[in-house]
Amino acid sequence: DTEVTQTPKHLVMGMTNKKSLKCEQHMGHRAMYWYKQKAKKPPELMFVYSYEKLSINESVPSRFSPECPNSSLLNLHLHALQPEDSALYLCASSQEGRGDGYTFGSGTRLTVV
Amino acid sequence: KNQVEQSPQSLIILEGKNCTLQCNYTVSPFSNLRWYKQDTGRGPVSLTIMTFSENTKSNGRYTATLDADTKQSSLHITASQLSDSASYICVVSLHTGGGNKLTFGTGTQLKVEL
Question: Do B100 and A45 make contact, defined as CB atoms within 8 angstroms?
Fold first, then answer.
């Protein structure tokens, strides 16, 4: 299995909703990442987990809350989002150390209404 | 400041033609350089990855080159197909204690037409 699987593929949520994005990989990667990508822009790093511990938080608002329950799973909990948070959310994973096998998921298209 | 610049910003070519995309970077310390293809609304898919000691890497009709001295890379696409229409992103990686941090270029939007 050489894939990073993200669910759901599409999500529409209201500003008062609570939802979660999920990411799963079975490649034995020990680093996992969340990115946010707006249209026609490069992905922006949000969070990095290394060996299931949060190692990088790029000053992301607290309405985004990451969680790494185990080495294969990464969640992003969403609460009280704003319309400007609408974007493509990408998960990625890589081997710790050299970053070999850096692989992206196909993304979740999030729309906040 | 670590930066990755790509040119051209957009490109339109006819099916069957070749094209070359450029990438200049100032990222330091350099770990590796990757080219990704990203279809609209989808995640990036890796085409090639090169360390500083590698000059060229091929993947089917895609050939990437790297000059670590001048900090330049190129992606050459041979015999283009309609399915090559996508954004091509140059990404330079540096290793940090908490995992690899990627610096993304702004991409070249390629359109292949009949």
Answer: no
